[in-house]
Amino acid sequence: MVAVASHQLAQCISGHAWNVDLTMIAVCTNNEVHIYNASPAPSAVWDRLHVLQKHDQLVSGVDWAPVSNYIVTVSHDRNSYVWKLEENVWQPTLVILRINRAAISVKWSPRENKFAVASGAKSVCVCYYEEDNNWWVSKIIRKKHGSTVTGVAWHPNNVLLATTSTDCKCRIFSAYIKGVDSRSAATTTFGEIRFGEQLVQLDLALGWAFGVKWSPSGRSLAYVGHDSTIHFIDDVGPSPIAQTLALRDLPLRDVLFLSEKRLVAGGFDCNPMLFASDDTGTWNFVRFLDEGKTPASDVKASTQFSEAFGKFYGQAKRGVATESPSSAPGTYHNNCITLLNPLAPPGEQEIRKFSTSGMDGKVVIWDMSTISDALARLGM
User: Fold this and answer.
1) What is the pLDDT of residues 112-146, one digit of tens each?
2) What region, left, alpha or beta, does residue 263 occupy, with left being phi > 0 and alpha being psi -120 to 50 degrees?
């Protein structure tokens, strides 16, 4: 078995996040966030402990800081709150984002001294705590995106920020903030950087871009397009190398690196897909994870190098993964998977368990131990 537990928690879930020891989970349901006493164990019973009520529109994103234990939420009401647990009560602090459209998603930085908010205002808010005034301050990356920003992902170095947008592009920005980040953090593989500077723009998708994530080392990046493509960018820097796989199934919505050479993705097929990189660095589709569907029996991926795609681009490899149809019934999810989260300590180099949530209101736990061991024997 790959999926080990499924929990129906709402009619629709727009986001979820785990605490550091995986004993509690925060789930976005409409304009509230419900916190459950949870466990990845198959037989565990999840009891609701808290309800966070401050937003008056859909809560579109939540993230739980592992060290500080702060929860950050964002909503279509254009506001954000940072929640702190005091005497078993979650106390909110309003963060003024200064945006005129909905907040879409949110993510704490690795050092938890900042968080980034994607918005429908074609901008990204990078928020940090200002101790002198005892409030959270927002700095905005403006005039770079052509449409709604759908996702944000922090590089492990705490200063590079990747974004995806409905203008079909993935970008990498500098989120270095003087006085918040160390002076040495301003020097990266791109040289000296300043806040808001666009370092890379990737034009690989022909549809809306979603679900951007970094690999554990930060050397690779992956995101998906609404044109049923998934894009892998290696050697991220001034001259990255990109590979695109065009899928014959429905579009994906989110991705998660399990290690430097393995990745899972989920979307409108309601069934997580496993990808792996071989010894040549070529990414290939491996199989669907939900045993309710027939795994691909004949997967072929042809790749070829194409012309350089700009100053900050390397060579692009495009391939087509020919999977068998994935419309068989009986999957754990019965509507689109919108989010994948690791069930592992921060900084873990290999993830064996992860959770998915989506528009069917379910949270499903997946255990990759058996598959990971089989792939290891095959050298993948």
Assistant:
1) 999 999 999 999 999 999 988 889 999 999 989 99
2) beta
The confidence score (pLDDT) of residue 297 equals 37
Give CA–CA dist 257/152, Å, rounded.
Answer: 15
Residue reference for tokens 């990845």 = 40
Helices (H), 217-350: none
Q: How far is Cα 246 from Cα 173, in angstroms, rounded to an integer?
A: 26
Q: Which of 269, 266, 247 is closest to 256 using CA atoms?
A: 266
pLDDT at 317 over 80: no
Q: pLDDT at position 372, please?
A: 62
Q: Which two tokens stand for residue 248?
A: 């014959």
Residue ranges in the chain assigned as alpha helix (H): 369-377
pLDDT bucket at 306, cuts 50 / 70 / 90: very low
- Tell me the CA distances in angstroms from 115 to 91, 154, 356, one per residue in order: 18, 9, 22
At a CB cut-off of 8 Å and minimum separation 6, what does 246 contact? 227, 228, 229, 318, 319, 320, 321
pLDDT band, residue 41 (cuts 50/70/90): confident
- Report whether 176 contacts 132 (CB < 8 A): no
pLDDT value of residue 98: 94
Residue reference for tokens 């908010």 = 117
Q: Are the CB atoms for 172 and 199 separated by under 8 Å?
A: yes
Which two tokens mark 134? Answer: 């005892």
pTM for the structure as a whole: 0.88
C-alpha span between 213 and 254 (Å, rounded): 8
Cα distances from 339 to residues 23, 174, 242, 354, 356, in angstroms, run 19, 25, 23, 10, 6
Contacts of 21 (CB under 8 A, 6+ apart): none
Q: Which domains does the chain have, with CATH numbers?
A: 1-13+216-380 (2.130.10.10), 54-167+169-202 (2.130.10.10)
